[in-house]
Design a protein that fits this description.
By secondary structure, the protein is α/β, with parallel strands linked by helices. It contains eight helices and three strands. It has a three-stranded parallel beta sheet with strand order 1-2-3, sandwiched between helices. Helix 1 packs parallel to helix 7 and helix 7 runs antiparallel to helix 8. The two termini are 25 Å apart. The model has no long low-confidence stretch (mean pLDDT 91).
Length: 154
Amino acid sequence: KEILEKYHDLFTLQWQGVAGNEHVPSQAEWEQLLTNCSGFLFYGMERFMSHLVLNRMVAMNIPKCHLMILLDLVRSKESYQRIMNSDIQKSYLHIAIERPTETAMLLSLTGVGSVIANQWYTTLQENAERLEILSKNLMTTGRTTGRAVRILQK
């Protein structure tokens, strides 16, 4: 929340979404947020795609979304238990589509212009640092997404 508030005025007055522990978004809320955004930020636990209904996601059209930042792949005891319970009901192929590369490809096919995503599991603190670096470089200094990611890699 601190990072969003810090860069709120520099980017847009129309930030929309769910922050903190407000509630768990419904599938309809996810779809509404995704289809009406020009940029999308996910900062959360486990795999981003595990929070969505895959069959509905593959049918979506998201051409307005120019940039999607997925700071996911964070694991806690509770999130691991939730994901394990959820994965029991899924096929191997369904779980495979939720991996980072496959998620980026799927989002690209739905119309998302650029995807910045983690490739490996990480911590909330490391994702907070990534978000700070990306926000500073994209919103304050106006760097391109490619340059901001390159700075992030260093």
